[in-house]
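so my prof wants the structure for this chain in the tokens format not the other one, which i didnt know existed until like an hour ago. anyway here's the sequence
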Amino acid sequence: MAYETIDLQHEGKVAWLTLNRPHALNALNSAIVDELHDFLRNLPSDESTRVVVMRGAGRAFCAGLDLKEHNRSQGEQFRDSERGFRSQRRMSELVMQMRRAPQVFIAAVHGPACGGGFSLAMACDCRIAGESARFNAAFIRIGLSGCDMGTSYFLPRLVGMAVASELLMTGRFIDARRALATGLVSEVVPDDQLEAAAHKLADDMVQTAPLGLRLTKECLAASVDAGSLEQALFMEDRNQVLCARSADFGEGVRAFLEKRRPTYAG
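here's what i got, hopefully its the right format
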């Protein structure tokens, strides 16, 4: 599929996925949603890609739903419950596909990440922010619930219930400095250093063993919702046994003892 609203560039094992509607602050219209679905649908079988960096072109990461298109061509469908549910689920399935993908996602956020853009950033495994980054759950400001596209799941786990309740119930913006303080992002850098910071994080990830990185993402996702420490330990034990049977484990041990960087098969 030839993409028009997203740009995809590969550098080794890293895919740079750019939301590419800068004239509309990368707002989510039907075209960009379709193209994201196509990319995410094919991603699990793409063994050449281990990390995906998601970013936005122009002045923003993503301004959320394209309300101009929504009002022009889709507004009526939300008066029909069945059609509205299909449309809503098509949006929400984007975050589910990101979480199910074996690849690690990094969000490199500058400028606004609002509504659905906020959700896409939170669905990533890691978030790095430029100093201009600001986030909000904009849904509640247009007459909807503040809980949409995974916000009620991701945000309390990232920042705690008190801050999540404040943000979801008001639609207030949280800037890069507070995002770092609350754990929403792991690093804040000047905007002109954001790409370099994302490069560094992605490079550090692809230096690890492929199976180990994949199972770490899987285990973290499962353990966040584990009912007990015992359940988390079962998952960790399984993963370590699987990794220990791979050739990469032997290479990792040899490299450690020889004080060199390992060369993994993947």
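also thought this was worth mentioning. The chain has a mean pLDDT of 92.
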